[in-house]
Amino acid sequence: MSKSAKWSPKENESKRLPIYQHKSKLIQAVKDSSFLVVTGETGSGKTTQLPQYLREAGFCKDGKIGITQPRRVAAITVAQRVAQEMQCTLGKEVGYQVRFDDCTSQDTVVKYMTDGCLLREVLADPALSQYSVIILDEVHERSLNTDILLGLIKKVFTNPAKATKGRSFPLKVVVMSATLETDKLSAFLSNCPVFAIPGRTFPVTCTFGSAVGPKDLENFTPSALQVVKVALDIHTSEMAGDILVFLTGQSEIEHACDMLFEKAECIDYRYDVTDQSVDGLLILPLYGSMPTDQQRQIFQPPPPGIRKCVVATNIAATSLTIDGIKYIVDSGFVKQLNHNSRVGMDILEVVPISKSEAQQRAGRAGRTSAGKCFRIYTKEFWEKCMPEYTIPEIQRTSLTAVILTLKCLGIHDVIRFPYLDCPEERFILEALKQLYQFDAIDRRGNVTKLGELMVEFPLHPGLTRALLKAASLGCQDLLLPVAAMLSVENIFIRPGHPDKQKEADKKHRALAAKTGSMNDFATLLNVFQSCKSSDRPSAWCKENWIHWRALKSAFSVETQLRDILHRLQQKKDFPVETFDGNKSELFRRCLCTGYFTNVARRSIGKVFCTMDGHGSMVHIHPSSSLFDQEAELNWVIFHDVLATSRVYIRTVCPIRYEWVKDLLPKLHEVDAYELSSVAREEVTAEEMTKWESREAAKRQSEVSNEDAM
Ligand code: CDP
Ligand code: MG
């Protein structure tokens, strides 16, 4: 096949996209205005085509075109697709950058990246001087980082005095959104013009099921079985066309795929299926942390006669468009990181999606022809349990990391920052308080030396704090692997089959036992080191039921974190401390420096009580090596919290009360309001002294209470 013959279908394909007819008008609109809002149905070609149009129109002469995505998978797969359309090697003219994976070069002019990556670039170069165009994409998803970028862009680039500072030519900003809210976006960005790409959609018939009703809301753990049943029904009784199933997360998806595979094997295609042109089922999982080569498969059309069934997280709702989907199975749930004010922590929760989200999911079936959407929940569930709209992330997650970024950018008054939708003030205060507890800001709300070091790491501030403590004690080799392991997808394989699950559990327990001191962080370290020193690491993983590719990325992440640390250690004021004691204690003490906000003490039986002032009741998650060892524990720290029927703590480590005794009072020491600049202006010196003596007295009594326990 000649090269041109091979590529021409792709070219025609892109000419068939709705955006194509508006190409010249769109280019003109970008030329005419510094800010532009572009809207259009998902799949109309915004993400893949607009950057190419702008490049053709000469926008890359002065600088790069940067396109942000809230999700890493979207950034990577879209860059792959565009590189293919432009017939160039990925990483050359077209590249991508996501956390811990930079696939760009000197030649890159069209750069797809996560919003988090652009935020880091702003830190290093607030004028974004390398870029001629910034496209903030998928703004309707309202991810935390995209919202912050929007605010920063408004603050800097809508102000003529600041907009040209550090730049030799003006920046163009395009904001793309799949839905509504365009008026709000335009108003936010100095009433800029809105360009709407008319959509082409086909009707989708939606039916409600009976598997999930309002009474399931409290105790719902997403059962893969229910969606598998519906998917199989579609496969056997509906006409040809691909299926897209929405589930909540990696483990449910893998479980559902295993079940589907098993059941599909038993189908007799001569008798069991209605559409006789269908003679096979291709089952493909899709979730955020999947390896890229597997993700690419998702977009390929299935072989003739084969029906494709993609089992995905919410990622397939807007960021990625898979052609050929005719049927949707909607579980009605999504896994979301929410700040839970009842327990005072960020919790990974499985929650009902909003009605608008459900409509978006259904819409995926109507791109090329009429489709059908099968909801596994009842009409009553829809009416009573599903909210109208999804709450923006900025209003429901911890703001600690972004507030530190803003502070490092010199934005002191973080309460009056231009937010598209303001987070609740108490969330901002909570973040300031946490930064103070980690010594990242001082009592006046100014960034400390440590805070400046912390912002360099793309990790949760607590984990960074522990890592920096270890580095100052010269034992970073203990913490770097742990930080890396906690930054990649789950490394432990949990097979769906009960026998295999037992075998895997046994291996995992053995890995934990090898560390001597049952501690989930130490297990992570042990897995990392054992695999790294093994002659055949992939075989080692297979034998121990560990995801080899997850571990491979952990190796790469560890190297990158090591490089960042090494660069920072060259600075002359990098802290240095000493410690004498054994290695296990040293390791756990370092962890305590970052995790003293996540301390729990055993209360009765297997129940633990958090020490952050909320006193929430939590349980050790069954995946922990300390599960069923509760009786021997008194004090623990934990990495994160998962809420299903109970509130579970995961990645747990036993500690001694003495190690956190001096740190715990810090949790109650400061009134967060005092840390915000607003409060500072209002508080007089006299009031301040009074406040300080009152706090000191409170601290004293708290410490003696703790001692009494
Ligand atoms: O951004 P928007 O939702 O408007 O559309 P897009 O992501 O640019 O998608 C345009 C077309 O490219 C769709 O038909 C997608 O299926 C296709 N596409 C693909 O085949 N592979 C990708 N990795 C990304 C998009
Ligand atoms: Mg898009």
Write up this protein.
The structure is a single chain. With 709 residues, this protein is an alpha/beta fold. Among the domains are: 10-196, P-loop containing nucleotide triphosphate hydrolases (Rossmann fold), CATH 3.40.50.300; 204-389, 3-Layer(aba) Sandwich (Rossmann fold), CATH 3.40.50.300; 597-662. The chain is built from 28 helices and 21 strands. An 8-stranded mixed β-sheet has the order 4-3-5-2-6-7-1-8, with helices on both faces. Helix 9 packs across helix 10 and helix 14 (400-408) crosses helix 15. Cytidine-5'-diphosphate binds next to helix 3 and helix 4. GO terms for molecular function: 3'-5' RNA helicase activity; ATP binding; ATP hydrolysis activity; RNA binding. It comes from Oreochromis niloticus.
- CATH homologous superfamily label of the domain at 10-196: P-loop containing nucleotide triphosphate hydrolases
Helix/strand structural class: alpha/beta
Q: What integer value in Å does the Rg equal?
A: 26 Å
Biggest sheet strand order reads 4-3-5-2-6-7-1-8
Q: Which small compounds were modeled alongside the protein? A: cytidine-5'-diphosphate, magnesium ion
Query: How helical, in percent, are the residues?
Result: 40-55%
CATH class of the domain at 10-196: Alpha Beta
Could you give a short account of the major beta sheet?
8 strands, mixed
End-to-end gap: 78 Å
Number of helices: 28
Percent of residues in beta strands: 15-25%
Average pLDDT, all residues: 88
- Low-confidence spans: 1-9, 678-684, 702-709
Q: Which term fits the overall shape? A: globular
CATH architecture of the domain at 10-196: 3-Layer(aba) Sandwich
Q: What's the count of strands? A: 21
Instruction: Examine the coordinates and then state which fold CATH places here, giving the name of the CATH topology of the domain at 10-196.
Output: Rossmann fold
